[in-house]
Amino acid sequence: MGQMTFNFETEEKVPEKKQDVEIKEEKKTEKKKEEKNTTSTKKIEKKVKNKTAKPKKTKAHQMAKEQRDIPVSEFFEQNRHILGFDNPTHSLITAVKEGVDNSLDACEQAGILPDLIIKIGNLGKDELSISIEDNGPGIIEENVPNVFGRLLYGSRFGSGKQSRGQQGIGISAAIMYGQLTTGRSAVICTRISKDHLATKITMKLDTRNNRGNVERKEDFIWKDELEEPNEDGISPEKEHGTKVSFSIKGRYREARPSVLEYIKSTSIVNPHARIVFINPDEKKFTFDRAISKLPKLPTEGVKPHPHGVELGQVMRMAQHSSEHQMAKFLRKDFSSMGTKSINDVLKKSRITTIVRPQDLTRIEAKALIESFKSTSIRTPTSGILVPIGPKLIKMGLKQVLEEYRPDFYTLPISRTPSVFSGTPFLVEVGMVYGGNLPKDQPVQMLRFANRVPLLYQAGGCAITKAVQSINWRLYGLDQRGGKGTPSGPAIILIHVASTNIPFTSEAKEAVADIAEIKKEIVLGLRNNAKTLARHLKKQKKRAKVSEKFDLVQKVLPAIAEKTSTVVGKPVPNLDKVVAAIMDVVWIEENIEYDKEGINIEVQITNYRLRSANFKLRAEVPGHQINNAKPRPGKRVGNQVIWSVGLPTTEST
């Protein structure tokens, strides 16, 4: 049997190398981290498992349940003051304004000369009925609940076209306010042609769902109140138009600001419209049209102008552009961009023409805007905006302000279009002076935006601030300290026209204080004020001459008579002596306006030592001359011309 052998080894501690120690320590650390991560992961998994199994309700959950969409109509119902329905008088004017704006826009877009009938009735206890009727194209039956029962519904928002309405809020908000304060339904009558029956729809606004709910609908025969009855006393049917009737809690008053003032002002800047107004006392006011021609409307919307566009706006436009090259994008999506302007802009911004607009970066868009600012780009063409025009402004002022009999109208000014934030606008200014206008009161400011009178919030309006920034003492009006609203027998008319008027609020009662707009208003005012200053200078000179003339006429004959008595000789003819002293051609005119036309009488006396030969011109735009003394030689355009030849000291 073999022998089993056992070998024994003694364990001895061999010193470890430093590197091995570090590796072991590192492994221990990593192991601890792994254990820690595993523990954390298990804890998180446990929490997630617990959360999935039994979710614990928190305050955030409770708050989330309370959050909801706010219907726009419900918001404005609770904040109606934002829209101009803050007190009974203001609310009435706002309601009428919204209805009139809708009617005028509809008529003009359909190519129809507007005929409007506005009635306000007294229902008692501060309740008033309002009806606004027009001869526009009418509204199809299915669309009535949307047009009159939904807020932010319309065809003009973002259209790029100049119009009175912009937001799709106005008339629906007026009906909503009426429903809120009186609980009564609105009634809409409409007819789209003589081949269709007139329809009467009774409806209310559902503010929770922002829609109109029709309560009743019926066909009826609609008589035209503006047309004369036939021989049998029967009025003809209304062929087309819309009439909206509703009631509100409001207060009617004659003092300014008032509904009557609003309608008068509307008539001034809309001389193509005939407006009949019947107040709660059934007193009728008729504002006939001064011209039977519609204003020319732009055929298409206006694209943003490169000057003044914002960074985000450019990036959005580029992202949604249908073009795939930067040069084509600039040409198609912006206005006033020609080949030279495009090349200059791209060169300065270091963007190639073939870059896709959709790939435009924020840095590139910023460079593009900077290059817009430093590049000469033509201003928008006048055809994209609809000015009233100097001739029609003057006609409108004369038509409505006849009661004041002003003795001077400046030639109104229409400024060339300018731009703010990529939006085109223009400013028009006209002034009236003298007559029966009060001399010791602040001048009356007539503020307009897109042919709509602005009666409230004058202090916060760019128009008012522009007027107050001018030193009117330089132009002949009183003004304390050279600042603030001037005083004197004057009316200043300012109209701002734009595809997007920057109002200070949804009530659309004041123009925002934007530097570009204010600058244009100031330039227009100064230009007009110079004309007024020249007139006042001539008026003062004429007053001095008149005083001198009266003195000569009284003193010289008295001296001559006494001298003749003393020397015992007849009184001599003093005409040549008077002429030598005066040395003027004296002209006195008298112009009277009536509904049929005007009567002109001119007396001219030559107080000079030589004969006078000249042409006398009088501007009478758009009026029929009933009678003129002396008879004019000819009429050219708006001017009546006399050829005058007078020997010394003779009159005609």
From TrEMBL:
<dbReference type="GO" id="GO:0003677">
    <property type="term" value="F:DNA binding"/>
</dbReference>
<dbReference type="GO" id="GO:0005524">
    <property type="term" value="F:ATP binding"/>
</dbReference>
<dbReference type="InterPro" id="IPR003594">
    <property type="entry name" value="HATPase_dom"/>
</dbReference>
<feature type="region of interest" description="Disordered">
    <location>
        <begin position="1"/>
        <end position="67"/>
    </location>
</feature>
<feature type="domain" description="Histidine kinase/HSP90-like ATPase">
    <location>
        <begin position="87"/>
        <end position="209"/>
    </location>
</feature>
<dbReference type="InterPro" id="IPR005734">
    <property type="entry name" value="TopoVI_B"/>
</dbReference>
<dbReference type="InterPro" id="IPR014721">
    <property type="entry name" value="Ribsml_uS5_D2-typ_fold_subgr"/>
</dbReference>
<dbReference type="GO" id="GO:0006265">
    <property type="term" value="P:DNA topological change"/>
</dbReference>
<dbReference type="InterPro" id="IPR015320">
    <property type="entry name" value="TopoVI_B_transducer"/>
</dbReference>
<dbReference type="Pfam" id="PF09239">
    <property type="entry name" value="Topo-VIb_trans"/>
</dbReference>
<dbReference type="GO" id="GO:0003918">
    <property type="term" value="F:DNA topoisomerase type II (double strand cut, ATP-hydrolyzing) activity"/>
</dbReference>
<keyword id="KW-0799">Topoisomerase</keyword>
<dbReference type="Pfam" id="PF02518">
    <property type="entry name" value="HATPase_c"/>
</dbReference>
<dbReference type="InterPro" id="IPR036890">
    <property type="entry name" value="HATPase_C_sf"/>
</dbReference>
<feature type="compositionally biased region" description="Basic residues">
    <location>
        <begin position="44"/>
        <end position="62"/>
    </location>
</feature>
<feature type="compositionally biased region" description="Basic and acidic residues">
    <location>
        <begin position="10"/>
        <end position="37"/>
    </location>
</feature>
<keyword id="KW-0238">DNA-binding</keyword>
<keyword id="KW-0067">ATP-binding</keyword>
<keyword id="KW-0547">Nucleotide-binding</keyword>
<protein>
    <submittedName>
        <fullName>DNA topoisomerase VI subunit B</fullName>
    </submittedName>
</protein>
<dbReference type="InterPro" id="IPR020568">
    <property type="entry name" value="Ribosomal_Su5_D2-typ_SF"/>
</dbReference>
<keyword id="KW-0413">Isomerase</keyword>
